[in-house]
Every structure is written in C-alpha cells, then in structure tokens.
Amino acid sequence: LFTRLLDKCDTDWSDYILFTPSDIDFDSDILARLLSRQKDYIAPMFWMNDHVNGSRFYDIWGFRRGGEQLRPYSQAWYRANFPQEPVKMDTVGGMALIRSEIIARGARPALEDVDHGLCRAAQALGYTVWCDPQAHIYHRK
C-alpha cells in the first residue's frame, strides 16, 4: 500500500513531501522547522505522549545511527547527550520530510521494510537521512 501511495505523490509541483502518521501530535510550526534545516530527508524526534513531563524516546525501531537503535531515554538525556544540530542517521521513522525528487527518482522501500527501506533507497540514490533534535512529535495514547 505504501509503495502505491508513493507512486501517487505529485512530485511535479512540490519540493518536499511530508509523511506523517495519523496518531501523533505536533506543534503547528513543525513543517517550517524541518524545512529550515534544508536536508534531503529529515525526521523530528519522536516521543511518547507526555509533552509536560519529558517523555521517553518512542520510535526506537525506526531511528538508527551507526548501526544502533536509538534508546528509549528521556528528553533530558537526549538534550544532555545527543547533538542538538541535525544528526546524520542510518534510518528514521515516524514523520519525515522528504525532498520530492527522491520519490520522483524512484526510491521505494521493500514491502517488508517500509521505514528503513525508504531511507536505504534514498541513500542508494545519493541522498542523506537526518534527525532534527530540535523538532519534536508525540505519540498519542
């Protein structure tokens, strides 16, 4: 299904495509924040649903760096121990802002490997994948 949706994206009139799950909350400026980073493929940090109490990192399956999954550590831990500028990643998941030419050039994931596969397909075309530690989304309960 996801590959068929990618085939339907109109890449002629837009520079970027924003993919977002339906079960997340985010601030109204998330698109502006991600666009300001001027990256090929970028995702915000993805937290559990507690905006106030500093929740834990949620998408430990999707986000990989240096071959390792990101850990479900707190926001405070990531602020203290993770770079605060965009970080080059192996893969990301959840919401992602992707340069439309990546899709137009045929980047498609393997059926069994949607998030990681699309990242790898983009990288195979010479693009880079990033995480923006200053942008945040939250999984709903």
Strand and helix order: HEEHEEEHEEHHE
Radius of gyration: 14 Å
Helix and strand content put the structural class at: alpha+beta
Low-confidence stretches: none
Largest sheet: 6 strands, mixed
Principal-axis shape equals globular
Helix content: 25-40%
Roughly how many Å apart are the termini? Answer: 25 Å
The total of beta strands comes to: 8
How much beta, percentage-wise?
Answer: 25-35%
Task: Compute the average pLDDT.
Answer: 88
Q: Number of helix segments?
A: 5
What would you note in describing this structure?
The chain is 26% helix and 26% strand. It has 141 residues and is of the alpha+beta class. Strands 1, 2, 3, 6, 7 and 8 form a six-stranded mixed sheet that branches. The protein has a two-stranded antiparallel ribbon with strand order 4-5. A hairpin with a 2-residue loop joins strand 4 and strand 5. The longest helix has 11 residues, at 114-124.
Q: Which secondary structure elements does this structure contain, and how are they paired or packed?
A:
Elements: H1 2-8, E1 16-19, E2 24-26, H2 30-36, E3 41-47, E4 64-65, E5 68-69, H3 75-81, E6 87-89, E7 96-99, H4 100-104, H5 114-124, E8 129-139
Parallel strand pairs: 3-8
Antiparallel strand pairs: 1-7, 2-8, 3-7, 4-5, 6-8
Quick recap:
With 141 residues, this protein is of the alpha+beta class. 26% of the residues lie in helices and 26% in strands. The chain is globular, with a radius of gyration of 14 Å.
What are its keywords?
141 residues; alpha+beta; two-stranded antiparallel sheet; 5 helices
